[in-house]
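Journal club prep — side note

Before the paper discussion, L.F. wants everyone to see what a predicted structure for a comparable chain looks like in token form. Sequence:
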Amino acid sequence: MFFEVDVPKRFEIKDRYDIVVIGGGPAGLTAAIYARRAGLSVLVVEKTLEGGYVNFTHLVENYPGFPKIKGEELASRFKEHAESFGAEFVNAEAIKLEVKADKKIVELDNGKKVEAPVVIVATGANPKRLNVPGEKEFFGRGVSYCATCDGYLFSGKDIVIVGGGDSACDEAMFLVNLVNRITMVQLLETLTAAKVLQDRVLSHPKIEVIYNSTVKEIRGKEKVEEVLVENVKTGERKVLKTDGVFIFIGLNPNSKLVEGLVEIDPYGYIVTDENMETSVKGLYAIGDVRRKNLRQIVTAVADGAIAVEHAAKHYF
């Protein structure tokens, strides 16, 4: 059944909802859509920007129905879709989650406490750090984790990209239109991105890939000027002159909120069953924060739909 709802511009957050979704990325927004379609009240708690990390992806080419769409536009469409069904939103951070019998209590950083029989954790993941000297010191002064955010700052300059997966290669193809030259530093013997992305990177005259190597130090005075790179097989070290370092080496799941409540794997990902339910009944985890084999927008939205479909049948 579809519900046509006039959505107010602002919401007065209630004390209780059927479902509270923590995180407003593709997974969380899909969960909100499916919750409203099932006739359930839903609150989406997002501490920064609805749409999540998709907002910082310059171009999405693998989401069905959109051969090419800017990440920011796709994220906006997700939110508009959820709003059109009457999902409610609050810009806040969930700082505590309590489980009491058949209810759960979500405490927000604004002091508000919201109760719900079902909570869906869609808190995603943050970019991993290299944890090398100079990385923290030069963040914002040549070190970046977001090509869309900072790429324009390096127009006509030489940069280093650390990583060789989908994100690294995709962002390299965005940055190559802005910068003078790119050197990619990849830990493995080959790139690990999808074949189509590898082909684009390897065939581009402005991109060079250094394999079996890792960045040991980021150096400079007021800003990044060079990086020290080490070959992990031979131990040989060399210095690369560069104006900036973009780091795309994976993700760290944001699972701290449920530490001690549910099963978490050694890498920090929340363990769920095939219905996205955790070891606590009525508590679900979806998207990049969940242990899974493929982390893509399309799998995130599938997680959201599956979780709500199960919750609607078993708890309402």
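L.F.'s comment for the group: The chain has two domains: 19-127+251-315, 143-247. Keep this in mind when we get to the figures.
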